[in-house]
């Protein structure tokens, strides 16, 4: 959609043959919704999201509320990712953008540039955007070496089911009487509960320590006996809801180090979303940051012009990296605070609410398109010199926490005029 609204012809190649309502909760923050509204997709998304005004962060063992803050401070509007996918796809089709289903991209040629499908077809373009997820094929082409995911040391058990089965359970009935979000935090563990559609649908996500083999899959069956073991000392109310769950998924939370570039050597294949900046679930910004990246890349391509794709892609990665990296680190920060704040704290000792609150609010006033327009001249001048010299500055120094680029964003208010 971002590319369409900047005037480009786009073809989407999708591996699966049919989209299904898979997964569970997904959040879209104000920073993403601001852009999506310009692309004709807003009211549909608001309707999908959780309508609860606040969320509660609770003590693991008894559910005591440690902090309350606006739900928008977490992930914005939280809904079922399958419903969000449907809304996105419907809008894409309304705009006449072709989506080629069942087209598995197996290789890239960065010089043409082109993609080759599993059936042998080859398709060329002026630029290729690889939004192919955390198991990205394009990522290794861009990097020039094999890059395997690492274990974060955590995994999630996840379940999503109809809320009716909880209405007759006195202990947990309150969680399906209305839309709500609650988070229980404990030592090296936390549980997020999300109720949608006035209690019709119920979701819980249990994050816990895990050292088993990495399997990046949404579809690995979870062990409900292990789930019940983990929550045996949890607040009896949410424990009752989890105990009544028939099945769940076991999702290993994988980590990838930041990479030195998001763009191929020819500058004509660019990574986007989880292929270059995957987020932990606790960041609650993965989808929103991918939306921002799409907006920035599309606008950079328009500003640079068709015959200067290298300038556009290299400016894109420089504009995005520092902000995305901080958003990723936010996810690590909140997970670590939740998992450690109650350690060695005696009963009766009050916890400062600020110690457990999610700190995403700073992300929301940002306007990715306005920031691109404001910083284009400065950053493009730097990139033009780098392209001329052949010396492209790395985004990140591997093995350190140093952001190599010194070009960092400021928070920019919404513009009065927007290129659409």
What does this protein look like?
- There is one protein chain.
- With about 425 residues, this protein is α+β, with helices and mostly antiparallel strands.
- Helix content is about 30%, strand content about 20%.
- It contains ten helices and 16 strands.
- It has helices spanning about 1-5, 30-40, 45-50, 80-95, 135-145, 225-230, 235-245, 285-305, 310-340, 370-390; strands at about 10-15, 25-30, 55-60, 65-70, 75-80, 100, 105-110, 115, 120-125, 130, 150-160, 180-185, 190-195, 200-210, 250-255, 270.
- The strands form five sheets. A seven-stranded mixed sheet has the order 4-3-12-13-14-11-15, covered by helices on one side. A three-stranded antiparallel sheet has the order 7-8-9.
- Strand 13 and strand 14 (about 200-210) form a beta hairpin.
- Helix 8 packs across helix 10 (about 370-390).
- The longest helix is centred in the C-terminal third of the chain and has 32 residues, at about 310-340.
List the helices and strands and how they pair.
Blueprint: H1 2-5, E1 12-13, E2 25-28, H2 30-38, H3 43-48, E3 54-59, E4 65-70, E5 77-80, H4 81-94, E6 99-100, E7 105-109, E8 114-117, E9 122-124, E10 128-130, H5 137-143, E11 150-162, E12 180-186, E13 189-196, E14 201-209, H6 224-230, H7 236-243, E15 249-255, E16 269-271, H8 286-304, H9 309-340, H10 368-389
Parallel strand pairs: 1-6, 3-12, 10-16
Antiparallel strand pairs: 2-5, 3-4, 7-8, 8-9, 11-14, 11-15, 12-13, 13-14
Helix pairs in contact: 2-8, 8-9, 8-10, 9-10
């Amino acid at each position: 959609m971002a590319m369409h609204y900047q005037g480009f012809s786009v073809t989407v190649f999708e591996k699966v043959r049919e989209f299904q309502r898979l997964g569970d909760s997904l959040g879209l923050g104000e920073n993403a919704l601001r852009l999506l509204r310009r692309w004709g997709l807003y009211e549909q998304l608001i309707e999908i999201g959780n309508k609860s005004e606040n969320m509660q962060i609770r003590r693991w063992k008894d559910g005591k509320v440690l902090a309350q803050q606006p739900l928008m401070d977490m992930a914005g509007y939280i809904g079922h990712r399958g419903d969000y996918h449907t809304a996105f796809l419907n809008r894409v089709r309304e705009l006449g953008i072709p989506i080629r289903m069942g087209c598995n991209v197996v290789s890239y040629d960065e010089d043409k540039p082109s993609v080759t499908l599993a059936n042998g077809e080859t398709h060329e373009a002026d630029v290729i955007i690889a939004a192919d997820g955390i198991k990205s094929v394009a990522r290794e082409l861009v990097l020039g070496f094999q890059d395997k995911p690492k274990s974060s040391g955590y995994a999630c058990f996840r379940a999503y089911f109809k809320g009716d089965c909880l209405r007759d359970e006195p202990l947990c009935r309150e969680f399906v009487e209305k839309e709500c979000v609650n988070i229980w935090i404990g030592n090296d563990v936390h549980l997020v509960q999300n109720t949608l559609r006035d209690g019709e649908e119920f979701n819980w996500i249990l994050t816990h320590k895990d050292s088993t083999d990495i399997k990046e899959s949404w579809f690995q069956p979870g062990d409900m006996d292990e789930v019940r073991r983990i929550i045996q000392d949890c607040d009896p109310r949410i424990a009752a809801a989890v105990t009544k769950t028939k099945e769940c998924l076991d999702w290993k939370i994988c980590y990838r180090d930041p990479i030195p570039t998001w763009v191929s050597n020819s500058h004509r294949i660019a990574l986007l979303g989880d292929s270059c900046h995957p987020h932990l679930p606790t960041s609650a910004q993965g989808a929103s940051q991918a939306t921002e990246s799409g907006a920035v890349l599309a606008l950079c391509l328009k500003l640079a012009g068709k015959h200067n794709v290298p300038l556009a892609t290299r400016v894109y990665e420089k504009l995005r990296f520092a902000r995305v990296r901080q958003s990723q680190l936010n996810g690590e920060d909140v997970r670590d605070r939740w998992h450690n704040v109650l350690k060695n704290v005696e009963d009766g000792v009050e916890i400062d609410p600020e110690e457990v609150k999610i700190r995403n609010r700073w992300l929301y006033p940002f306007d990715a398109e306005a920031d691109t327009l404001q910083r284009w001249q400065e950053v493009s001048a730097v990139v033009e010199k780098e392209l001329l010299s052949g010396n492209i500055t790395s985004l990140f120094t591997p093995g350190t926490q140093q952001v190599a680029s010194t070009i960092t964003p400021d928070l920019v208010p919404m513009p009065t005029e927007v290129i659409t």
